[in-house]
Amino acid sequence: MRRAVILLAVACGGKPAPRPPQVSPAETLAKQLGDDLAKLAELAHRHAVDCGALVSVLRPHVEQMKRHAGDVELMMADPVKGAELKAALAGYADRSPGRTDQAAKDLGAAYLRCPDATTKYQLEKAIADMPTFE
Questions:
Q1: Angle at which helices 79-93 and 51-76 pack, to 10 degrees?
Q2: What DSSP assignment string belongs to 1-27?
Q3: Any idea of the CA torsion for 7, 12, 13, 17, to the nearest 10 degrees?
Q4: Average of pLDDT values for 42-66?
Q5: How many other C-beta atoms can be found within 10 angstroms of the C-beta atom of residue 10?
Q6: Average pLDDT across the chain, whole number
């Protein structure tokens, strides 16, 4: 049986498929954080004229961002993993300069259009709950 498997492997080219490149946990987390910021900017821009709609989509996104922030805290507690994460994040900082500024402007525009104090409070709370990193 083993010989049949070897012959079959040789007949099919004999070379195993190349392994996909290994992605480190730091690179994976850096990508998640980059994706979080991209989605935040997209949501803020799409709903800049509709405060209520922004609040409804922002809340779950902020919760996801907070989960990723917890992962950052765990990784940063380890000096080696923390250094890997900082290196992985460096590439994301340069990809979209101004994205954070534009998101802030869009969040502000939505805030100015909030129909009532309750909705304003909900947007303020969502913004206050967003994790920040130094």
A1: 140
A2: -HHHHHHHHHHTTSPPPPPPPP--HHH
A3: -110
A4: 96
A5: 10
A6: 87
Residue partners of 123: CB distance under 8 A and separation at least 6 = 51, 54, 55, 58, 107, 110, 111, 114
- Distance from first CA to last CA of the chain, Å, rounded? 60
Nearest to 47 by CA among 123, 100, 110: 110
Helix, coil or strand: residue 83: helix
Q: Of the candidates 44, 30, 51, which has an alpha carbon nearest to the alpha carbon of residue 94?
A: 30
pLDDT band per the 50, 70, 90 thresholds, residue 133: confident
Check pLDDT > 60 for residue 132: yes
* Segment 52-62 mean pLDDT: 96
Amino acid present at 134: E
Alpha helices for the chain (secondary structure H):
2-11, 25-46, 51-76, 79-93, 99-112, 117-129
pTM (two decimals): 0.79
Distances (CA, A) of 1 to 5, 8, 9, 10, 123: 6, 11, 12, 14, 66
Q: What integer pLDDT is reported at residue 92 of this predicted model?
A: 75
